[in-house]
């Protein structure tokens, strides 16, 4: 994505609880003379801020023009990940565009292939089994989180349907009472004018 040099850009990630999140990014600066983005942006860093669903700051750190950040969510919900350059130029001068390449991986634990190759076959199978068990736990947590969200949605839908039903009943009662009142008023009017 593209941002201005002093602009803040935020991304919302829906993350289950107890999940590791790893993000890799790279910043490129627009070069006016070459009319393209430079391969790297030396001297330019990024402030990365991560906020939990309750508003608590989980991570707030300055990184270089290229880096990796990670955090573990302790609550399920929408986490806000914000990026802002550490440019010290004034807003009038800082009109340069930045391109940010971002890769966010939620709940993934990667195998170190070099460590696996250094061990014998039994250890390799053991490490791969541990990795699979870890992935199974992650999938289980994801399913539990989706169940919680589905249950909340169902509860909200049922409450809305109940409210609509009571509103329809109230409208019907009001219409019936207004109709009875109009009939009674017209009848009294006709009797008073001796038309009936």
Automatic annotation (TrEMBL):
SMART domains for the chain: EMP24_GP25L
GO cellular component entries: endoplasmic reticulum membrane
Subcellular location(s) per record: Endoplasmic reticulum membrane; Membrane
Cited Pfam families: EMP24_GP25L
Chief subcellular location: endoplasmic reticulum
PROSITE patterns: GOLD
Alphabetized UniProt keyword annotations: Coiled coil, Endoplasmic reticulum, Membrane, Signal, Transmembrane, Transmembrane helix
Segments traversing the membrane: 164-183
Topology versus the membrane: Single-pass type I membrane protein
InterPro entries, sorted: Emp24-like (IPR015720), GOLD_dom (IPR009038)
Residues in coiled coil: 115-142
Domain GOLD: 8-106
Membership in a protein family: Belongs to the EMP24/GP25L family.
Name used for this protein in its record: TMD11 protein
Organism in which the protein naturally occurs: Rhabdornis inornatus
Gene name linked to the record: Tmed11
